[in-house]
Specification:
alpha+beta; six-stranded mixed β-sheet; globular
């Protein structure tokens, strides 16, 4: 009797593992964070892509870091890295009003977003669901010079267990500690003035 219960328990655990695996796969995602860091703009990407419900197309050699906000184009690649384009994304066609601006430095795996064509380019040997990461930099640039509009932009594709997404976070600059101190001092002074005005009344 005990042996039978153990067999049932093992089967239940195996089924739960399969469900958990499917659940994890259905929540695969890739996130690109773009920040102003000092006088530069730095983009980092991390995550994975489920490509099962995307349509693979042509291959090309990619070797640029670039932004074309008006057309929803972001390219992160270096050293003539081979990529394959995948069609089927759904989401915004742009993330700002800027024109084409080349970046300066890159490291990691190539990832190219072509929102105007509903495409993403990935390494030609990419295996669906495997991890990718990169860092790309525009030296002596800002969101203003790149024409990027701060905000969160999301592209989705696939259904059911194969549903996936790419999220682009263009993060508004955070005030430096000194700016916070000045802001707090200003608010404190304003509060003191208002308190004096109330007493005078």
């Amino acid at each position: 009797m005990l042996e039978l219960e153990l067999i049932k328990m093992k089967k239940s655990l195996a089924a739960a593992a399969v469900l958990l695996s499917a659940h994890a796969a259905s929540h695969a995602a890739f996130v690109i964070n773009v920040n102003e860091v000092g006088a530069d703009v730095v983009a980092t990407g991390q995550g994975s892509f489920l490509t099962d419900d995307l349509t693979a197309g042509s291959t090309a050699l990619s070797s640029k870091v670039a932004s074309y906000a008006r057309f929803g184009l972001l390219t992160f690649a270096g050293a003539m890295q081979p990529t394959t384009d995948y069609a089927g994304l759904q989401g915004p066609a742009s993330f700002g009003t800027g024109g084409f601006v080349f970046g300066d430095t890159f490291s990691g795996s190539p990832v190219l977003l072509r929102a105007y064509a509903n495409q993403i380019d990935l390494p030609t040997d990419y295996v669906s669901g495997s991890a990718l990461s990169f860092t790309g930099t525009w030296l002596n640039d800002s969101f203003s010079t790149l024409g990027m509009t701060p905000g969160t932009y999301t592209w989705t594709w696939g259904t059911g267990a194969m549903a996936d997404s790419l999220t682009l976070n263009i993060n508004a600059p955070v005030p430096e500690p000194e700016s916070y101190a000045l802001m707090l001092a200003g608010l404190g002074a304003l509060g003191a003035v208002r308190r004096r005005q109330r007493r005078a009344r």
